[in-house]
Amino acid sequence: MKGPSQVVDQIERNRQELSRLAEHHGMQDYKVLQQSMVLDELINEYNRFKYKKQQYMNRQPIA
C-alpha cells in the first residue's frame, strides 16, 4: 500500500507529464485527457489519506 508521501511524489511526476503532453499535443488531445484523469485519481487518493487522518484526529474519546 502506498503512503501519502509516495502519492505526492506520483502526483508531481504525473503533473509534469501532463504539462509536457499539453505543450506538445495541445489541451484537446486524447493523451492529455488520459493523463489528466490519471492525475485526478492520484489527487483523489491523496485526499482520501487526508480525510482519513482528519477523521482519526477528530474522534471523540469514549467516556
Tags for this entry?
mainly alpha, 63 residues, 2 helices
Describe the model.
The protein has helices at residues 4-25, 30-57. The protein is elongated. It is 79% helix and 0% strand. The N and C termini lie far apart (34 Å). It has two helices and no strands. The mean pLDDT is 89. It is mainly α.
Shape: elongated
**Rg, alpha carbons:** 16 Å
Number of strands: 0
| Helix vs. strand class | mainly alpha
**Fraction of residues in helix:** over 70%
Beta-strand percent range: under 5%
Quick summary:
79% of the residues lie in helices and 0% in strands.
List the helices and strands and how they pair.
Layout: H1 4-25, H2 30-57
